[in-house]
Amino acid sequence: MNRLSVIVTVLLLSLASCQGQPEHAASQKLSPLAGSWLQQITSSPQDFSSLVDASSRDGWIAFHRNDFTSASSSFKGEDASTRLARGRALWELSLFYDDAARVSELAWASTFSTWKERSAIPAGSSIPYVAGLAALDSGDLQSARNWLAISAESTNPFLAQASLQLASVESLEAPFQGQDLPPLIARVNQHLRARSTGALSPIMKSAHEPLVEERVPNEKTGTFVVHRLYDPMLCRTLSMGFRIKASMALGLDDPLHAVTHPTPEADPLAALLFSPAPNLHDLRAEGTRAISAPGTLGAMSPTLAQLGLVLELPREDDANWAREQLRLLDSALDQWVVEHKTSLDSDGLALLLDLKLPELFRSRVLLAMARRCMLADHPRQALAFAYLGLDLESPRALTAVNHPGLQALIMEGQLRTGHTREALDALQILLPAYPALTGLNEVLGDLAILQGLDRFGDSKEN
Amino acid sequence: MKTSLLLHATALATLSMPAFAGTLRYAEDQAPGIVNPIFSTSMPETRLNELIFEGLYTDNQELMSVPCLAESAEVSEDRTEMLIHLRQDVSWHDGERFTAQDVVFTIEAMKDRNTLSPELGRVSWIKKAEIVDDYTVKLRFDRPEARPEDKLLFKILPAHGFDGTTVKRTDSFRNNPIGTGPYRLVRYNDDNSISMERWLDHRNPAHLDQITMREVSDKNYQAKLLVYESLESLVRVLPRDLAVLQNNRKVELYPYQTNSWWYLGFNLNEEPYNNIDFRRAIAHLVDVDTLLAPIGTGDILTGPYVKSSPFYNHDVPEWTHDPDLAAMYLEQAGFTMEGDQWMDGDEPLRITITAHQALESSQEVVINLQSQLQSAGIQVDVGFLDEATWKARVWRERDFELILSQWTFDRNEDILDQFHKGGSRNFTGFSNADVDKLLELARETTDPQEKKTSLREAHRIIHDELPMVFLWTLDSYAALSTRVGSVVIHPFYFFTYVGDWTMD
Q1: What is the pLDDT of residues B255-302, one digit of tens each?
Q2: Which of A19, A166, B82, B98 minimizes the number of CB atoms within 10 Å of its CB?
Q3: Which of A334, A451, A461 sits opposite B406 (nearest CB)?
């Protein structure tokens, strides 16, 4: 258990044993954040305590430090608040893997096309099959057919048969039917079932292992090269599977709606706590707006506009704009902290500081803004927001402030701006907590190598 | 105390300097020893070169090679020849026209064996460079080149600045460098700072009027000077200062360069460093966590790559801090313990650790290391060398026992120069036939997975053979005043896009 967890645990235990209502002075000046969950739980720590006690203390500790896997399994209860909390944790996992899936699609497509361009793909290799599968799963039917036409000629009957079966469909939706399916097609079926049922266990079991491992002769050296080719469908499957799980926890087909419009039985704080939406009004407004891009929830909340931020994206992908927006946000948050801090009792102050609530809220907003920029094809702004959201006290760790989505977006931003090697830096931070990204790490590594094949490496001291 | 007073005086002098509008002042730990790109060996030199000089090609912001001094090019069908048409609107900082002669001169000067350029490898693939006319150059290659422009990023020198193709480090050019880049060196100042001003005849003049490189050897002062608005840029912030600077609303942090690692290198041509048992003993005596703690956060490494590298072998274990194992290896190496002191025959075992005085926090690390080894019974002398002495003793004469230093790599992370028997940066004298083969194969192959496999294996062997104790990579960020806008930083060369930077 890290230091923060200890602090949080002690804090929560002390809160649980709190007797009576703490007195606190009303804010003298109403900031747009006055009605936010940040203000609510610091002004009335008992609200926080009630929610935590009623659902799961461990769950909220994990949620606070962005460990959504632990959080989702800790929120076991079936009351409305606990289900909402569990649904939010699973929803966060879905969004994270959705970010990773965008990187994955780009990485697999770029790697194999660059590989083909720069280096002959060895005859008999499974590369064209994996490339075709990746293209088909990302909806690039033409590329898929081109690749699969090559692998269909393979002398390996299983590979040829699997290629023909993939080439016979226009998209990957319904599982393939029939007896004695080739193992590669059986694996595709596992994905398709997981995407529709949320049954992720069979996929997760082998998530960090190669889909294909093959020995390919190197004619120049007379030796063999071992190729390890990873599963390009994985991140999309995890995203879709966790979405289904979130829906099941929330009891609605649309987890976004369930999260943004909590039922009257649920504690509204369960929907808001540690989120980028300051209050229920924002959450509902955002829920309506973010239907087509749920990961951007919190990027355009009315409160942000009241804080002075410009919610319209500029036409150009200008990172300076992102930095200006952050200055506005920081200024508003600084002002709120200064004004609000004086009115807090010791418990409220401890919550504010020990849980790093202003920093956490800031990073959640920046994450949502980064996602919004990324989806609007503004990767430089997205990169700026994501980097600015990191807590540099421990930049290589996933912490309460350093949400994994920030690193996923840094990875995507770097990749989309040509900095493949730098994308690996972000991925390295995610790997210990998300071993399913092993294949993505390997394929991005291949791409970085391919992009530098013709360069002389440069090295200098200091 | 004297040093400390001097630092205070430097800081105060810097504080009292007025900031001219449009002047960007950046800090280096030490001023570049030489301003000539074909002798560049350090990052401060490389950054300065980026301001003053240009290549035929450069990286655009997506890190693709795009024409710079070249205007266009045609590659022959068999890809063994390249005709390069040069820009005709380029002039050197002394007003002379840039022509094909300068390109051919630069290639020949770097290839000239008497030049002794550590950058020779950058042109060794070019069989011949010929002048076709004033603004056209033909290059012939040793073998077909898929993307020759990717190799034409080296800086071009003015032919008229030298007497012949044998270029010496001591040539007067070092004091009067002439480039075609966006900034012109105008003055070396008494405080070791270097003043540059915008080259107005540049085809695309930069926005900032002046750039000043200030030597501020104390990293703690660098951060303070930035906060006091006496500097506009730090190229590398110590990890321990990151959180403080992040909370300063007048400063912006930019991620910059992560392919750097610190190491403790043995001189394998000297006893007892040529003894693997002795090296293992040192590796087990070094408590890397404790050495790193005062500097800040970073990753501890087991080999010559950072952990995010595709070549890093994650299966290789760290050398554990284990004094008992170290003692066993010292005995195997023939040393004996008398009292609490290891003896080399009748004499106490005594070693010397040398570091570059400009290496950030090196004094702290070396003193801690000295303390660790002395408490284990090894007497340790320490030395800190200035730039010129370091280059002479480490690079040229290989006159050292143990060195503490840091390598920084671009995104290719090519370690051949450091670990191949014939590598130009192989100070330690490491020689291993298997590693040589693996490094050569990695350069030759176009199969990314073969390259990865080869270099991961090289990592394993180098770790086991222990020419160096690999230490750590630090979290690396640059810091700039919020007054500086449109900042984009190249992940290795830093100033590549400085022409676009603006200042309020």
Answers
A1: 876 799 999 999 999 999 999 999 999 999 999 999 999 888 889 999
A2: A19
A3: A461
Cβ distance of A396 and B299 shorter than 8 Å? yes
Cβ–Cβ < 8 Å for B146, A453: yes
pLDDT category of residue B21 using cuts at 50, 70 and 90: low
Q: Spell out the domain ranges in chain A.
A: 3-7+34-76+267-417, 99-236
Rounded to 5°, the CA angle B237-B239-B245 comes to: 60
> Hey, which residues does B133 pair with through a beta bridge?
B136
Q: What is the DSSP letter of B393?
A: I
For residue B151, give the nearest of A393, A444, A456 by CB distance: A456
Contact B415 A421 (CB under 8 A): no
Average pLDDT of the residues of chain B? 92
| Alpha-carbon distances, residue B335 vs B57, B325, B338 (angstroms) | 55, 14, 10
Contacts of B348 (CB under 8 A, 6+ apart): B341, B342, B379
Mark which residues 393-412 of B lie under 8 Å from A by CB.
405-412
Are B39 and B168 in contact, with CB atoms under 8 Å apart?
no
- Chain A residues touching residue B425 (CB < 8 angstroms): 459
In sequence order, what are the residues at sequence separation of 6 or more whose Cβ sits closer than 8 angstroms to the Cβ of residue A236?
A97, A101, A104, A105, A137, A195
CB-CB under 8 Å, A218 with B453: no
Closest CA to B54 of B245, B182, B161, B244: B182
Rounded Cα distance, B101 and B98, in Å: 8
Burial state string for B308-320 with b = 16 or more CB within 10 A and e = fewer than 16:
bbbbbbeebeebe
Identify the H or E element spanning A2: none
Residue B259 to residue A421, Cβ atoms within 8 A: yes
The structural domains of chain B, ordered by start, are 2-52+181-257+491-503 (3.40.190.10), 57-161 (3.90.76.10), 260-474 (3.10.105.10)
Note whether A83 and A250 are within 8 A (CB).
Answer: yes
Concatenating the DSSP letter of every residue in B236-285 gives: S--HHHHHHHHT-TTEEEEE----EEEEEEE-TTSTTTT-HHHHHHHHHH
| Contact (CB<8Å) B405/A455 | no
Is B310 in Cβ contact with A391 (below 8 Å)?
no
Contact B392, B426 (CB under 8 A): no
CA B182 vs CA B20, B31, B209, B359: distances in Å? 18, 20, 10, 28
- State which residue of chain B sits closest to A223, comparing Cα positions: B450
Closest chain A residue by Cα to residue B485 = A320
* Residues A402 and A390 sit within 8 Å (Cβ to Cβ): yes
Alpha-carbon distances, residue B193 vs B21, B217, B218, B230, B314 (angstroms): 18, 12, 15, 14, 43
- How many residues are listed for chain A in this entry? 462
Largest Cα separation within chain A, whole Å, is 80
pLDDT per residue as tens digits for the range B440-490:
999 999 999 999 999 999 999 999 999 999 999 998 899 999 999 999 999
CB contact under 8 A, B63 and A419: yes
| Cβ–Cβ gap A461/B299 under 8 Å | no
Q: Measured between alpha carbons, how far is A401 from A390 in angstroms, rounded to an integer?
A: 7
Inter-axis angle of helices B323-332 and B276-285, nearest 10: 160
Could you tell me the sign of the dihedral formed by the alpha carbons of B110, B112, B113, B114, in that order? negative
Of the partner residues A118, A394, A427, the one whose CB lies closest to the CB of residue B146: A118
CB contact under 8 A, A395 and B122: no
CB atoms within 10 A of CB B482: 15
To the nearest whole Å, the CA of A397 is away from the closest chain B CA by: 10
- Helix or strand (DSSP H, E) at B176: none
From the list A393, A395, A456, the residue facing B122 with the nearest CB is: A456
Say whether the ipTM exceeds 0.95.
no
